[in-house]
Structures are given as C-alpha cells and as structure tokens.
C-alpha cells in the first residue's frame, strides 16, 4: 500500500473532478451525511459515520425513466454518459453493490445498471470505528476489507493508506501524489459476527412460527428498511402519460408495503405484516443465497438504526439460532 | 428497438381484432410490428397500455393461431386495454415463464379444469390436444363460470365438444335459460370422478377454486405429480428482478407459472 | 411509576379485560424504547416507561378493531386516541386507556443516549392526558408548561423571507425518498388507500423526486391539518432528517387561529374540515 497525506488529498480529489463526477459523502446538515455530487473537495467528509441511504442509487436510482414512447417518435431512452468516481464507500456498502450485481446483471441484464457500473470507479474507505449496529463480519468482510472496491483507502494518522485493486482503481489513483507508506495497516475495530450459515441451515424450520406475528405487531409496514438497505432492490414500474405517449418510470419499492403483492382483483397472498416481514427476512437469508450463493445482507446495520420501531434483524438471527419461537 | 438488447423495452404490436367474450373479458388479437415472439403454451407475455402501465397475460392461443390474449377488466391497466380497439398500439414483451411439458403428457388421458378467466391459459392446450388426438388419450374439459354469459370462448364450445368431453357448470344458480349443471367446479370434479390412472389433470382458475380442485383430485387418487396448475401473481418485471412475484423461493415469473402440485406443496407461502 | 404501569397492565391482562396491552419495552440498544404488545400478565413485566418512550402508540389502534386492548397513552397519544374515536376508527369501549402524566420525551436516536428534551416538549402545556380510564402520575400544578417563553422552530422559520422558506422546504423535500415512514407511524394516517398510492387519478404516482415529493409532503400535511397532535413521530421516523413537524405544527397553529380548534382536545368539537354548516361563520 502507498500513503496519501491529508495535504495531498485535495489535489487528488480535484483531479478526479476533472476526469468525471465525484460522488462522495457530504454533510448536508450537522449529523446528516449523504453521498452527493461534490462541488468543492472541501465538502467531502471521509470521517462520516453512516449515510441514511447507501450509494446504491448511483446504479439503481430511486426513480428513473426507463424510456419515453410516443407513436410519432418511437422510443427515446435516456443516455447514460460521463464517468463517475464514487469515493468513500465503506466495505458493507461495497459489498451491497456487488450483491445487487446478481439480480441486475444476470440475464437478461439491465443495460442501464450495467452501463452505470461500467462507468463508475468505486473507491472504498476503511472503517476505523464500528457502530453498535454493525455486523459486517458475518458476511466474509470486515471494516478494512478492500474487496468489491476498485481502490481502497484506510484512514491512518496524517492521511490514508491506499491501494488499487483493479485497473480502474489504478487509473483513479494515478493522479494522486502518493508516497511510500511507513505506517502499518491499523488493526480493524471489533465487529461481532453472527453465524448466518447456521441460521440458513435451520431457518426454514421456523417458517410457520408464531415468532413472525409477534415481531410484526410493531412493524409499521413502511419502506425504511428496504430503502436504507445496500442490498434491497425491489422495484415498481408504472407509466406516466405524456402529451402524446408515455414515460415509463422504474422506482424503488418495498416488499413491506401493504400493497406490494395485492392483485387487481383485491386478492393478496401476503395480507399480513407477519407474512411480509417474514418474506424480507427469508429472501435475505434463504432465497437469495439459494439463487446467487451469497447472503442478501451486508451487516451495515442501517435497518437496525433507522427502523422507527426497532425491528432488529440481529435479534431475529439470534432467535433463529436459538431455535426458539422467541417472543420478539 | 428490439426487446432483446433492453429487456424492459416492449415490442410494438397493433391490435388487429377485439372480440367480446363475456361482459368483462375481451379477446385481443395482436400483430407484431417488428420482431417475433416464439412461445409455448403456459408461458406469458407482459402487455403495455402505454401511458398506464403493464400487466402479465398468458398466451391464449397456439403460436400458429396468432397472438391472442383474453383480458379481464380488473384494474387500471386492463381497463386501459379495454378502451383500445383495432389499429391501436400496445407494447408486448416476452415470452416469460415456463411452458407445459406437453411431450411428457403424451399417451395420457387429459383432464382440463378451468374456472372463469382461468380458461385462458388452458385454451391453447385444448386446441393442441384436440389437434393431436392420436398422441394423447381421452380429453375431458370441465369449465365453470358464474353465469352462462361468463363462459369465455363459448363460441368454440361446439368444436371443443367434438374433440373432447365437455362438461360445463355455472354457480350460483339463477339463470333460467340455463338447462345445464349448477355446481362449483370442484363439485363437478367430484361428480365426474375422472380416473387418475394414466392421467394428467391441468387446472387454472381463482386460487380458492384451484385449492379445492386439488383436494378433490387427490381424493380421487391423483398423485401430486399428476396435477398441474398455472399460478397468477402480481408482476412487474417478469424476469425475476423486481422481487414481487416470489412465493417462497420460487418466482412465478421464472420457475412458473406452470407448477405441479408436487412443486406447490413445497412452496412455503400462500400463492 | 413503572411498577404501577406493570401492575395495571398485568391486572388487565390477567382478568381478561383486555386481550393485549400496548406499551413500551427497552429497545435492542439498551438505551431507547420500542412498542411492545403484551399478551399475558407475565409479559407485562417487560413494560417500561421513561423519557425515551416517544412512540405514539395510538397508531396501532385502528388495526385492533374488534379486540379489547389496553394502551399506555401520554398526553399527545391520548389526543390522537380522541381524534381516532371522533373519526370512527376506534371504539371507545374497546380501549382501556392507561394515561400517564408526561415530563417530556427525549430526542432519541437508536444507539445514542440522549437526555435532550424534544423542542416541542419545552413549550408544551398539555402534560396530562385528555382521556383515560386510569391515570398514572400526578397532574402537575398549573401553569403546566415548563418553558412557556420558548421560541418554537415554526416562529423562527416564519421570520424568514419567502424565498428562503421556499428553499428550506425545497431542499428538504428533494431528499425525501417516499419511504412513507412518516405516514405509517402517524395515528392520523389510516386511509386504506392513501392518495399517494392512487393511480387513477394520479397524484404522485410512484416517482420519487421533485415535484412529486412536494405533492406528497404538502398533501399529507394538508390532510393532517386539524388532526395532527404534534407528537413529532413523523419527524423522528424520517431517515432523511426532514423537519416535518414544523410544517404540521404551522398548519395546526393556523387551524387554531381560524377555528379555535385543536386536534383531540375536545372529543365533541366539530371538525373544521369535515363539518359543513349552512351558514359558515368563517369562510
């Protein structure tokens, strides 16, 4: 690894801004950091704790027009142009992007997602502190794990240890004034892991447990857990009429929404909060791994922090490990 | 733009014919403007009413008969489609889903059991089995609807009755001109007692009808592998990406919509 | 106080007077609270009550129709219960309300301890529940408000020029992700079909972003005028830090100015926006 001093950081960020869009954590307000387009390198906060939304919207926007159509002009598809440098991605969020590759890139691949991934360089950032809700180590990553990023920064006194992991990452780092590293890689903060493999083995035996109903009592059926999650990707598609045709929009959605599976006839196979809550959990820890060989969770803990009624996925994992229909 | 490169882009198709089948079901015949859709019975397409949205519909005809869809007016998309007529443009993408394994049914007696709009995915099968009578055993068609006017494809009943045994039923009672059977579809199955020996039963209709039909067939000795159904689900992408149509770990759009009861019994959730 | 709450809830459950008692228990961070549904006298031991118990539990009542339930209600929650009763969403006889006198609740964030009172509690004068079957705590002597001279965030915003106020809301609504946490946590948002989910007619549709986010947030605020009790749960639930409570509070103060009406205070008062009079006094 090489060393990038805090003094040389600004110059590097400026050169990235010259090469494309720089998206990095920016404080919108004290205590609210979001991945945003950077206008001045001074805005970048690489000491941030968490962003409510992971950077998934760079690849899977909260809303986008799939196309516009009119009988006279045919299809008009928004162009995806330019290059993006996504800086400051914690290992959990980098894993989240990798996990979303599975549904979006498996055939038939979504060309929009594919194009955005191609045009984006992910510059990861190690975590020197863990939050109380973190459990990323459950998924084969850790606070200083550089996998799933094109380049990786580890905060150390005076700057960052940096390394390129891919050709894209090397290209992004080429314009940084790097020095030889004389500081060792710090020890990562402690993050306790949950044995999710063991959960997966026994999970299905608790599918019909009254546990889900008790847990769901306080669930609000909002969409927070899905929207803040780096690896949730449910979406809705609907047209907006235009003067002479249609704009087809794809937007985020959540399987927790009471309307998610309701058919036009009014029939709904998932009428209860319990069945919806259960579905989210099993998708992440059973169905997604069945389909793609990886858990659909990164251990970022956002759902734990932002659930307004504290439905804590780690408590559910523990309950399953204990084999109990433990009251939520 | 062909839907091959961007799976979300529908092919354009013109409505060539609209026929009223029942007070709320219309049969739409579509002509593709470009491209082709090669499908097999059991699969479905997603049809766009531009400006409103999309919805999934099973192919209601054999490929050689042209693209036909039986659409029941239920929500915003189907209502918008019902407002269209010959010459109007719609979008269509597909085929999606799995098909009925017709080769596997060769030599067997076939029992087709439909309720209401559920006859739509069964109609291409009926045409297929009647055309290839020599390859299959006896064909029994049980079809129930609320009233006589709610039988879709009643204009084909004569043809069906020539190539198969056709048993109709309405429920609830109340149509004085109807001289036929008044019963719910599962009760008709119970009454007719089709033999499970060397048979395949294929059923489609409202979820509750499917549930009770399966019960009756099992009571007659049909094994779960001998009972086939096609499921409905709320869908958006049709490709297993939007996560709306999964029943447990199976996608209705990819692993279905055709399922045997053996497969359904392994489903963890309600469908 | 806690022992009395637990004992009362256990009594109600043991006697079968209620099938379920809705209160609070400690959250998974060991610091904050979360709603808890007790179904037996034993489970009542898990109940807690302190300044971290911010949730407006009335939100759960419309879903419990047909069941006798007990509920712990702070003053704002009790006002919500009145609103729900008045709007026909809750049967008074089906709810056993254990009211609790309130000292104010904290600004809570999961995982972070806080002893900072929510700003609205600083100027709140309603420290005793307005409807209850059993009261826990001593009603404070008048005057009830702890800091009657506090300046609210509404007044601070009102003093700004229009262009600044517009940008304030525009920049906040730009980051709304339409997660509907504000709606789902609100006791007054119980519509089986919310206008934002309607596709025919199309209000917001599914698109997330401006201008649809204006329609959503302002539309919801308008629907809450005269019905919102300022529990501030919408603001707490919002993951994007949008100060929704300021908007709802502003509309509530306008309703009070125009109609002399405050949500949930008097269960018999006619609703300003749901009452039609042949000779309207205020037009």
Largest two-chain interface: A-B, 48 and 42 residues
Q: At the fourth CATH level, what is the homologous superfamily of the largest domain in chain B? A: Nucleotide-binding domain of ferredoxin-NADP reductase (FNR) module
Low-confidence stretches of chain A: none
CATH C-level of the largest domain in chain B: Alpha Beta
Layout of helices and strands, plus pairs?
The complex is a heterotrimer of chains A (328), B (271) and C (283).
Chain A: E1 2-5, H1 6-19, E2 21-29, E3 32-37, E4 63-70, E5 74-76, E6 84-89, H2 91-105, H3 111-118, E7 120-125, E8 151-156, E9 159-164, H4 167-173, E10 179-180, H5 196-203, H6 211-216, H7 224-228, E11 235-241, E12 246-252, H8 273-292, H9 302-306, H10 313-321
Parallel strand pairs in A: 2-6, 6-7, 7-8
Antiparallel strand pairs in A: 1-9, 1-10, 2-3, 4-5, 4-12, 8-9, 11-12
Helix pairs in contact in A: 5-10
Chain B: E1 11-20, E2 25-32, E3 44-49, E4 53-58, E5 67-72, H1 76-82, E6 89-96, E7 109-115, H2 119-131, E8 139-145, H3 157-163, E9 165-170, E10 181-182, H4 185-192, E11 199-204, H5 207-219, E12 227-230, E13 246-247, E14 250-251, E15 258-260, H6 261-265
Parallel strand pairs in B: 7-8, 7-11, 8-9, 9-10, 11-12
Antiparallel strand pairs in B: 1-2, 1-6, 2-5, 3-4, 3-6, 12-15, 13-14
Helix pairs in contact in B: 4-5
Chain C: H1 2-14, E1 20-26, E2 33-38, E3 69-73, H2 75-86, E4 95-100, H3 119-122, E5 134-136, H4 153-158, H5 162-174, H6 181-185, H7 212-224, H8 233-237, H9 244-259
Parallel strand pairs in C: 1-3, 3-4, 4-5
Antiparallel strand pairs in C: 1-2
Task: Describe what this molecule looks like in 3D.
The complex is a heterotrimer of chains A (328), B (271) and C (283). With 328 residues, chain A is an alpha+beta fold. Chain A is built from 10 helices and 12 strands. Chain A folds into 2 domains: 2-180, no CATH class; 196-321, no CATH class. In chain A, strands 3-2-6-7-8-9-1-10 form an 8-stranded mixed beta sheet. The mean pLDDT of chain A is 95. With 271 residues, chain B is α/β, with parallel strands linked by helices. Chain B is 20% helix and 31% strand. Chain B contains 6 helices and 15 strands. The longest helix of chain B has 13 residues, at 119-131. Chain C folds into 2 domains: 2-136, no CATH class; 153-259, no CATH class. In chain C, a hairpin with a 6-residue loop joins strand 1 and strand 2. Chain C has 9 helices and 5 strands. Chain C has helices at residues 2-14, 75-86, 119-122, 153-158, 162-174, 181-185, 212-224, 233-237, 244-259, and strands at 20-26, 33-38, 69-73, 95-100, 134-136. Chains in contact: A-B, A-C. At the A-C interface, helix 7, strand 11, strand 12 and helix 9 of A face strand 2, helix 6 and helix 8 of C.
